[in-house]
TrEMBL record:
Pfam (any one): Flavodoxin_5
PROSITE patterns tied to this protein: FLAVODOXIN_LIKE (PS50902)
Protein name as catalogued: Flavodoxin domain-containing protein
Annotated ranges, domain Flavodoxin-like: 4-157
Amino acid sequence: MAEILVAYATKMGATEEIAEAIAARIRSAAHEVTLLDAADVSSVEPYKAVVLGSALYAARWRPEAVKFLKRNAPALARKPVWLFHSGPLGSDLSAQKAPPRVRELATRIGADQPTTFGGRLTPQTAVGFFAKKMAQGSMAGDYRDWDEIELWANHIAEQLVAAR
């Protein structure tokens, strides 16, 4: 079994792609990594550390990510955990506050509040009426900063190496 779990909850695939990049960076630091949709994780017990990301829509995390945190809270409290969310669009990509329940769960498990990454909304990937309408307007585009994501993943990899 891999030592690090990178789990994600996504609607249109952008958060999954961020999770893939994070997993690849942690692997490059000689760690075994499992990458899974949060809904497919039965237990976090086998892992030494966990990274969880969720898409952020209308100031809400994906339900499967919140369920993941609730279901695994006791085990997560005993290991290093990093959280991120993606979703801000447009020119204002400032850090977004996590929903109250996620902030509460992060505090309970001893994790820092989620790091914010820009999101992606394109006509090709939009799912749902409102997203499809937004993808035709000024908010459409890919606002993910891959250098920022890489730096954050590097920080995690360094902390994992230091903890060995």
